[in-house]
Each structure stands twice: as structure tokens, then as C-alpha cells.
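Lab notebook: predicted structure, single chain.

Context: the supervisor wants predicted structures on file for every construct in the current expression panel, including those that have not yet been purified. This is the next one on the list. No modifications to the sequence; it matches the entry in the shared construct table.
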Amino acid sequence: MPKRLFIKGASSGIGAATARAVSAVGWEVGLFARSEDKLNALANELNGATVLPGDVTKLDEIDAAMEAFGDIDAVFANAGKGLDTPGTEAGDPEAWHDLIHVNVMGVLYTAKAAMPRLRARKGHMVLTGSAAGRRHIKGSVY
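Prediction complete. Output recorded below exactly as produced.
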């Protein structure tokens, strides 16, 4: 039975590259992101990944996507965003709100939805973190 990976933030970048890599070695992949057109293109490239469109800032959408995907051996919480205008003085409070909800709440929601499923299969959760969590980046609001 093939291993199954649910990728949050699968439509481009690290998430799409991970989908390609694990698919190449036989894993079944669930692709979760807002950009359904990009997910469909990637799924076609991979010959059969499961497209699971949804918003990382909505716990119910993450949970429903995981339920639709089925058994999960691993989850990759990868979705993230930055800011167009860095800093606090020039920054946009709405952009901060969106960043926190994608980068922090999205990870918490993913963990909440994933943990019972991962525990049942002794699975793993992998997170993509920001460089701002490890070193000072001028203008970062972290």
C-alpha cells in the first residue's frame, strides 16, 4: 500500500516540488491550496494526485480536505506568505492580519486537523518555517 502525503500550500514553490519528488517515488499526494487551476495542472503533471482546493485560514476547509483525501501518513504544512510593504510604520495592518492567519493560524489549524489522522497511522508532520524565526530580517513583523 503506498504512503500518502497531504501538502498544504501545494500549488507552487516548495510544495509543488515536494509533490513532484514524493510522487516520483510512489507516494499518493493530496494537493491543498486556494489556486485550483494550479493544483489541477500539477495533478495532471503527476498523473493522478488528488486536488483539494481550500483556504488554509479555514479549519473546516482543511479538515474537509483531509477527510476527502482519506488515510494520511504525513502532512506537510507549507503554505505561507510575506508582506508587500515591510515594517510597522509603513506596513498595512490588514496585510499583517492575513500573514498571521496564513503563517501561524494555518499551521495550527493543520495540526489540529491532522493529529488524530497521523496518530492513527503513526505518521509525521513537517513544517516550513520562516527565516525570520531564526534571524532578524529588516522590516519583518515576526
